[in-house]
Structure formats: C-alpha cells, structure tokens
From TrEMBL:
Gene3D superfamilies: 1.10.530.10, Peptidoglycan recognition protein-like. Residues 244-385 form the N-acetylmuramoyl-L-alanine amidase domain. Residues 1-29 form the signal peptide. This is N-acetylmuramoyl-L-alanine amidase. PANTHER family: N-ACETYLMURAMOYL-L-ALANINE AMIDASE AMID. GO terms for biological process: cell wall organization; peptidoglycan catabolic process; peptidoglycan turnover. Keywords: Cell wall biogenesis/degradation, Hydrolase, Signal. It comes from Kitasatospora phosalacinea. Residues 194-213 are annotated as: Disordered. The lineage of its organism: Bacteria, Bacillati, Actinomycetota, Actinomycetes, Kitasatosporales. It comes from the Bacteria. SMART domains: Ami_2.
Length: 621
C-alpha cells in the first residue's frame, strides 16, 4: 500500500434519458421464494430480461449483496453494482458512461438515483432497464435466450474485451446459491447446456492481445503490461534509481515463496502514474482495477518490486496492488467482485508457476508482513484492511477454509475462520459490517482487556487474529480458546469451534524453543550470518538483529514451511548493475523457519527450535 490523495465518490453524473418498453414474461420465482429472489423475478419480467441472466449478472457484481446501500471502494451501489463516480475523481479522458450507470438506470425508470442506491427492488429494476436498453441498442430484441445477451452484458460490465461477460455466462452454466449478509437466500439453477452468441469481433481474453503478450497472466484474464519506472532521480548518482530492482528470479536463487496483497489507497489511474514515477520509490508486480477486474503488470516477475517494506519478502514475493482503500473514512466499504475474481485467477496462476502454497502463510496481506527490525514494527502497513473477505478469496483460489470440526483441544493447530457475513465486531469509525478478524483478550471473558493494550481501531493489529491464520491452542475454558500469540496466551470467543477450526492437514510442523532455553529470539527478516559475506568484500555486511519479541519456553507456533530456508541477501547497487559484485545473492548457512508469530509472520532460527527437520548441510563460508 502506498498513500496518495483520496478520491471521493460523489453525487454528480450525467443522466441517460430513454424509454424502456419491455416484454413481460411471467415471473418464475415461486410464491414462497425469498423476497430478494422474487424481486429479481419481478424486475426481469418488467423489462424483458431473462431472470437467470439478471441473477448471474448481479452475482458477478456483488454476490447478491446490497451492502446496506453503501458504495464499494470505487463507487458501485446496490445488489447489481451500479456505478456513480465523481468525474473530478478520475483523470481527464478517463470518465465515461461506465462510471455513471446508477444515474443512467435511475433515469430509465424515473426514480431518484439515491433510491436505487439503497433500495434493492429499485436497484434491480434500474439494472434490468439498463440491460434491456443496451440489448436494444445492440440491435437485439429483449426476452428470449440468455445466450443472445452477450453484447449487452459486456457493455454493462464496462469492458468490451469480455472478461465480465464471460464470467456472467460461466455463472449461468454452473449456477450459484448463497445466503447474503442480511439473511436473503438466493438460488440460480445451473444451465450447463447454455449456448452463448459471443460476437466474433469481441477480443478473445484467452490469449495475448497487443501489450498483453509481455504480461505473465493466465489465459482468460484481461491483462496488459505497462512498465513501472526504472530510472534515476539524480542523473549524477547511479544508486538513485527507482522503482524496482533488476534480478533473475528464481533462476538466480531467489525463490518466489509469497504473494503479498495490497490496496492502492487511490484510483487505478493515479496509482499507475505513481508507479511510473521513479521518485515514488515504490512498485508492485501487478495492479488490479476495481471496476472490471482488468490487470496491469508493472514489473517483470523476475525482478524485485518494492512493495512489502521488508527486503526478505520483496526478494521472495510478488506484490499485487488492488484498487481500493483499507479503511475508507467516509462511505466506501467493500471491494468489487470483479477485483476478487481477477486477483484470485492471477494468484492461482502464479502459485502454479512458482510452487507457492495456497494458504495464508504464503498468500499474504501487507498486514501479515513483519517489520524487518524493531524500529519498523509500528509503522508497518495493514492493508488490504479488515473488510477484505479472505474466506471468499480462499474459495476463489480453490483452497477454502476447513469446515467445522467441533471445539479444539490443547495442542491442536487451529485456523481462524469466523463466518465473514455474520462476523461483525465493533470497529471504531465505521458502522456495523462484516469483518475478517476476531478480537483477542487477556482472559476468557468479554470483559477482559484487549491484548497488548489494543484498541478497536482497524489499523491496530496487535489485538486481532485474521481469517486464515494458524495458531497452536494453549488453553480452553468453556466457549473460549487461547492460542500462543506474540509470546503469550491470546483468548477469543470460540463456541463450538465456530471462530477457529482444527487444521485438518496432516504432518504440519509445530515448533517450540530448544531444550534448556528460557526463551528464543524472533526475527523480522531472514538474513545470512556475517561469515557469508567473507567472499564478497564489496558487499556491506547486513546485521542479523532480532526483534524485541521472544518465544518463551513452553510455547508452540506452527511453521509456515516444513523445511527451513537459508538466510539470504540480494545486493543491487547501481541502476546498470555495474558496481563491484552488483546483483549478487549472498546465501548463508544459517536457516530460518517462517512462523505466524502474532498477526504477522516472523522467523525463528532453526538452531533455536525443536520440532522441525534437521537443517540442510552447509559447506560453510
């Protein structure tokens, strides 16, 4: 996450005036169906839109969530994700009808735009009217087969390239069913035999297109390559470059082990401009646009982007920025479904390419990355924020959280897994909404103080355990569970194992301090020992300095990997790589286990722990 001026959503937009006269097929929802299901049927019938198509479109926009009328981080409203964005919030030339569909839909049905934002019935009517309007403008009749509506759906999604429309029709084929955060149960029956009239002039998202050929993206993802800055900020100083480090990962020994998710704290275009300015001294490998899920690659994955605030995680990670905000202070409260879908498709691709495990010790938020040294701990970023839906994201990755398994026992490894839609702990500065964490306390009581003197601020990660994190159970008291966290017991309400479930994966490595040690040090980065630099006289020795944290005797922490990793440091001094020993990887004999220490990951030296495998042989330095 990098900080830039916030773009506010606002009320101004250009209204589209048109008359929609649709055929009215019979409503198909059963009389005893959920009220929201009946509203879909009524809106579809009124404007001649196939009901299943409207259901699939809304599912791809919001998964049928209304979010209480609050906008997304980039200006989507209501169950169908209609848009309203202030023209002043986007760069000149970037504004267009796709950013003002809320007002266009409101004009079509003769209702105030504000009503469509908060009333699901009117939102559905407006979306159906707008979709029918697009269908007519494409030269097609309303009604009929859903497969004839491809052009209208693509236009609704704001991207003629087709990813949104392709996902809508994929949902029609597979079907969907879920209960929303406000308790509405909606079902879309599968139509596996559906045939789609995909126009021949629609660009194929299954392969390279122009600049896409340079981007490392999966087939089917709308993706391009727009390079981040690689330039000097002072022409007289060859070390004054930004915004990334040239390398040859993983061939040069820098294995890619992590994906780190960020949010931009600004719009797509402004974020792109920031990464293309070398004075920013920041970059990411990818940037995902919220409105349509478009992906832009900025840094070749062989190179080291500057995104995590921790050199170890930069060296061994791929950074993905998402258009949005970790904690919007006015209205936006949720990330778009298209952003989730594209990001997950990209991460699945990267995980397969580089052998990255699809779990929360390897697919990280910036809030999971530790401060490299103690002085950096307090200032570490905490995006993508407490309302990033990790449970949904893991499902999209094909690695869902484990199911309920009853109350845990002491010594079990558990995965934090509160039900996102119904998990609504109070957070300062925002109204009631789903959150991705549980509060941690000093004792088994709701009246016990929050851990570490923590607060209810979203940015205060000291007292929070986030979805997907794994810990070892230290104690159980009734409906309360304590885990080893930050060198102490951390308590949270866990009735019946509803907030944290046993990790069902066999053979997981759990680490404890070596025998005889009262405590062992914790590290924020995995650097090599001083002796590793002996053959590299031009490379400054990087000090191996622990954090102030420790693991006391008797405590246990799950290892993120079954084998320890060698400490390493990539030296890159000049922009052209022409300094003595430039672009050299120093690898040590000391090995480290990454663990989930508190909210964030950390490292333990393998010589300090028991429970792991023997450190690999090292020839010495």
């Amino acid at each position: 996450m990098f900080r830039m001026p916030r773009a506010a959503t606002a009320a101004a937009a250009t209204a589209l005036v048109a008359t929609v006269l649709g055929a009215a097929p019979a409503t198909t929802a059963a009389p005893d169906a959920d009220p929201l299901q009946r509203r879909f049927a009524a809106a579809a019938a009124e404007f001649g839109v196939p009901e299943d198509l409207l259901l699939a479109l809304a599912y791809q926009q919001t998964r049928w969530e209304s979010h209480g009328g609050a906008p997304s981080t980039t200006g989507n409203y209501g169950v169908t994700g209609l848009t309203r964005v202030d023209p002043a919030a986007v760069p000149a030339g970037a504004d267009g009808p796709q950013l003002h569909t809320l007002d266009a839909a409101a004009a079509l049905i003769g209702r105030p735009a504000g009503e469509l934002a908060v009333d699901p019935a009117q939102n559905l009517r407006g979306a159906a009217a707008l979709l029918a309007h697009y269908q007519r403008e494409s030269g097609r009749a309303v009604g009929g087969d859903p497969g004839d509506w491809y052009r209208a759906v693509a236009r609704f999604g704001g991207n003629a390239r087709g990813p949104f429309a392709d996902r809508v029709f994929a949902t029609l084929r597979t079907g969907a069913e879920r209960t929303t955060a406000d308790g509405r149960h909606v079902r879309l029956a599968p139509s596996p035999a559906l045939r789609v009239d995909r126009p021949a002039d629609t660009p194929d998202t299954a392969g390279p297109r122009g600049a896409t050929a340079a981007a490392d993206c999966p087939a089917g993802l709308d993706c391009d390559f727009r390079p981040a800055a690689y330039a000097l900020t002072d022409p007289a100083d060859p070390t004054s470059y930004g915004n990334y480090t040239e390398a040859d990962r993983p061939a040069d020994g820098q294995r890619i082990r992590y994906v780190v998710l960020h949010d931009t704290e600004g719009g797509y275009d402004g974020s792109l401009a920031t990464f293309r300015n070398p004075k920013s001294q920041a970059s990411a490998h990818y940037l995902v646009r919220s409105s349509d899920g478009h992906v832009t690659q900025l840094v070749d994955n062989r190179d080291v982007a500057w995104h995590a605030g921790n050199k170890t995680f930069n060296m061994h990670g791929i950074g993905i920025e998402h258009e949005g905000y970790a904690f919007p202070k006015d209205r936006p409260t949720w990330y778009s479904e298209q952003l989730y879908q594209s990001s997950a498709a990209l991460v699945r691709h990267l995980a397969a390419r580089y052998g990255i495990p699809l779990d929360r010790e390897h697919v990280l938020g910036h809030d999971d990355v530790p401060g490299p040294v103690q002085a950096n701990v307090a200032g570490m970023h905490w995006d993508p924020g407490t309302f990033w839906d990790w449970a949904h994201y893991l499902e999209l990755l094909g690695a869902p959280l484990p199911g309920p398994a009853g109350p845990p026992a002491v010594g079990d490894t558990v995965v934090v897994s509160p039900a996102f839609d119904t998990n609504r702990p109070a957070v300062n500065g925002t109204s009631d909404r789903p959150e991705n964490f549980v509060y941690l306390r000093t004792g088994p009581s709701p009246d016990a103080p929050l851990l570490n003197g923590g607060t209810r601020d979203a940015a205060d990660w000291r007292d929070k355990a986030v979805t997907g994190a794994r810990y070892v159970v230290a104690e159980v008291a009734g409906d309360w569970t304590a885990v080893w966290y930050d060198g102490q017991k951390a308590w949270f309400a866990n009735p019946g194992g509803s907030a944290a479930v046993r990790d069902p994966r066999p053979g997981r490595t759990v680490l404890t301090p070596r025998p005889g040690a009262a405590s062992i040090p914790v590290y924020g980065r995995a650097y090599p020992e001083a002796a590793a630099y002996r053959d590299h006289p031009s490379i400054p020795v990087q000090q191996v300095v622990p954090l102030s944290a420790t693991v006391p005797a008797g405590q246990a922490y799950p290892a993120a990997d079954p084998e320890p990793v060698r400490g390493d440091f990539y030296y890159a001094r000049n922009i052209d790589g022409d300094a003595p020993e430039d672009r050299t990887l120093v690898v040590g004999c000391d090995t480290y286990y990454p663990i989930r220490y508190n909210h964030r990951l950390a490292y333990l030296k393998s010589t300090d722990v028991q429970g792991g495998s023997a450190a690999p042989a090292c020839a010495g330095n």
